[in-house]
Design brief:
With 328 residues, the protein is an alpha+beta fold. The protein has eight helices and nine strands. The protein is elongated, with a radius of gyration of 54 Å.
Length: 328
């Protein structure tokens, strides 16, 4: 009887343990299902591309949206910001950046921006490189630490370009050319290394001489700017006075030429008229002489006012005078 009771107790415990194991199995299966669902669904943000890796091997890239992958770590997805413009700062740093390679540590800033120019002068150059990721696969797998690699390449190219120019070109007139040349050479190296990057812009920020000579250099720049200002003022005054004087001279020359042309035409007209009169005079001298005399008297006498003309044969004058009219 004791054995029977012991056997019943064992069977009861076994049934209890089996129920517990079944419950635990259900819980484990449910947990696995939930974990599988949780790890199989992911979202790619609007500015990202997802790079899918299966057991560490590249499979494909996916666009933004809700996506699915093999769960339990079989597939892993790395997000790459292909639609965001990234930048790197050299010689200074903007705090709060999300890009780990945007700027270096403050103790390296002085080393980054101190450079030697082609004429063996020193210059302090700060600049920015703006870029985008255009090939996520190359960016992740072709180069180890692509952000730091880009920093090293950018600094090397900038030092090379600055070393080919004088300090005046670096600080003043050659800034734009330096930006263009650095951009071209940097893009060539990035393409050569297959880093999957596109360089958008290289921009020089503060470019100054070293601190010990900065005050003297600024004085020289101020003197040069003052010289340019005075030259521009002189050119402005010259452009205002000289054209006006030239205009007045041209006006006087035109007036003189018009007067000369007028006098020449009048002289030619008088000569032509005289020749015509002389030709008529030769044909009938007496008639022409009398006509010329009468025409001359007709033009002269009205200008003489009230006159009485007598010849030597006149005997009486009074009956011819009109005393009732006042004489002029």
């Amino acid at each position: 009887q004791a054995m029977s009771e012991f056997k019943d107790i064992i069977e009861a415990n076994f049934r209890e343990y089996r129920k517990q194991f079944q419950s635990a199995g259900l819980i484990i299966v449910a947990s696995l299902i939930l974990i599988g669902l949780f790890t199989a669904v992911y979202t790619v943000q609007a500015e990202m591309q997802g790079v899918v890796l299966r057991f560490g091997k590249f499979i494909t890239t996916v666009e933004p949206g809700l996506r699915f992958k093999f769960p339990f770590g079989i597939d892993r997805v790395q997000m790459v910001p292909v639609r965001r413009q990234l930048k790197q700062e050299f010689g200074f740093g903007t705090q709060g950046a999300s890009n780990n390679s945007q700027y270096s540590s403050p103790r390296e800033w002085e080393h980054e921006k101190n450079m030697v120019t082609g004429d063996l002068n020193a210059a302090s150059v700060e600049w920015i490189v703006q870029y985008r990721i255009n090939d996520p696969r190359q960016f992740l797998f072709n180069v180890r630490e692509p952000g730091n690699t880009l920093r090293a390449v950018s600094e090397s190219v900038m030092r090379e370009v600055v070393g080919d120019r004088t300090v005046d070109e670096v600080i003043t007139i050659g800034r734009q050319e330096i930006e263009v040349v650095v951009l071209q050479r940097l893009q060539e190296l990035v393409n050569k290394y297959e880093m999957g990057l596109s360089i958008d812009q290289v921009q020089l920020k503060d470019v100054n001489p070293p601190q010990p000579v900065r005050a003297s250099f600024n004085e020289v720049n101020q003197a040069q700017q003052e010289r340019v200002k005075l030259v521009n003022q002189a050119n402005q005054e010259y452009n205002k006075v000289v054209p006006r004087a030239r205009g007045e001279a041209d006006q006087k020359i035109s007036a003189a030429e018009g007067y000369a042309l007028k006098r020449i035409n009048e002289a030619q007209g008088d000569a032509t008229r005289f020749k015509a009169l002389f030709s008529e005079y030769e044909k009938a001298p007496e008639v022409t002489r009398r006509r010329m005399h009468l025409e001359t008297m007709m033009s002269v006498l009205p200008k003489m006012g009230r006159k009485i003309i007598m010849d030597e044969d006149a005997q009486q004058v009074l009956p011819l005078l009109q005393l009732s009219e006042p004489t002029k």
